[in-house]
Amino acid sequence: MAKMKAARWHNRKDVRVEELEIPQPKANQIKIEVKYCGICGSDLHEYLGGPIFIPVDKPHPYTGEKAPLVMGHEFSGEVVEVGPEITKFKVGDRVTVEPIHAKDGLKGKYNLDSNLNFIGLAGGGGGFSEYVVVNEDQAHKLPDNVDFEQGALTEPAAVGLYAVRQSRIQAGDTAAVFGCGPIGLLVIDALRAAGASRIFAVELSPERQAKAKELGAIVVDPSKEDAVESIRRQTGGGVNVSFEVTGVPVVLQQSLEAAEKGGELVVVSIWEQPATIHPNEIVIQEKTMKGVIAYRDVFPKVLELMGKGYFSKDILVTKRIKLEDIVEEGFNALVKEKSQVKILVSPK
Q1: Cβ–Cβ under 8 Å, residues 73 and 125
Q2: Angstrom distance (rounded) from CA 258 to CA 179
Q3: How many CB atoms sit inside 10 A of residue 74's CB?
Q4: Could you tell me where the DSSP H helices lie in the chain?
Q5: Considering 68, 117, 123, 167, which has the largest number of Cβ atoms within 10 A of its Cβ?
Q6: What's the CATH superfamily of 157-291?
Q7: DSSP, res 268
């Protein structure tokens, strides 16, 4: 069998680039030659502190696989082979992948599936490889004016857009985004697309502050001022909607306090540990707090907005690397270099 290179998670701080057999599509699948795959914050969490989503002790119920597994779920590529039942795609199509594993496929509220997981975390291949096969419903054609690099940002952009669409934000409203990593910056851009009048970006890193400013946000540096007090002062009592995108326990209370009376907090982060809030902040001020996980039914909207210039790779992508360098130039660089936002990996 022909072989390909792929990066597999074996254990915490143990990701290896190995030679694997090239996967072959089933009747309802397409085979994709991967062009670019982004390193996600959740990939970094798996590398540094996993397993989180990766099944280790028993196989995932939908894939029948457990570690070691190929990583990577933010990817785009070209269709090189199609199964006999495929009707939507042909060889040569340029696609991005919606990498969710759900029991009934991408139907209904599939992101709330009790065994929710992802290509690149639970089996079924992954984007840190030369080739991957996916089900027909997991692929979306890229518009002509969206290239492969931009297409690899569709998945994280979907997280940002879904969070905003699930919020109560209205055109002309104010918002605050706590944390300006890749998802935080994408939330800012989605808020811009939704017509938010003023967006406050709370971030410590000067490099990420600069990116937020590029997107039109008003930067609040919590090392120089009280972020909550600053936002309340500038808005006359707080923003309409606040977004928590850090996963840092102390920030949860701050992001709640930054919302106005009757306002809303949307929690976007995946948490590694518990975090405390004071319930009176919700009760006495009649605030609403809600969570969002991943996305559903937003990939086409993301691609439409990308065609209009939103979620731009020029702002988000800070480094491009080869697959063989993924550990040192990818994972380790994200730990050491706070200037990095999104690193794209090219398998070839």
Answers
A1: no
A2: 13
A3: 30
A4: 41-49, 148-151, 154-166, 182-194, 206-214, 227-235, 249-257, 280-283, 299-307, 313-316, 332-336
A5: 167
A6: NAD(P)-binding Rossmann-like Domain (3.40.50.720)
A7: -
Domain layout of the chain by residue ranges: 3-153+311-346, 157-291
Of 174, 183, 156, the residue nearest 267 (C-alpha): 183
pLDDT recorded at residue 338: 81
Supply the DSSP string of 19-61, one letter for each residue: EEEPP---TTEEEEEEEEEEPPHHHHHHHHH--SSS--SS--T
For residue range 31-58, list pLDDT tens digits in order: 999 999 999 999 999 999 889 999 999 9
- Give the residue among 312, 295, 317 at the shortest CA–CA distance from 145: 312
What confidence tier does 1 reach under pLDDT thresholds 50, 70, 90?
confident
- Options 3.40.910.10, 2.60.120.200, 3.40.640.10, 3.90.180.10; CATH for 3-153+311-346 is 3.90.180.10
| pLDDT score at 35 | 98
Sequence length of the chain is 348
Give me the residue label for tokens 């009048």: 197
- Give the residue carrying structure tokens 């934000």: 169
Task: Give 180-216 pLDDT, tens digit per residue.
Answer: 999 999 999 999 999 999 999 999 999 999 999 999 9
Element (H, E) at 339: none
Q: Are 153 and 166 in contact (CB under 8 A)?
A: no
Please tell me what DSSP assigns to residue 136.
G
Mean residue pLDDT of the chain comes to 97
pLDDT at 251: 98
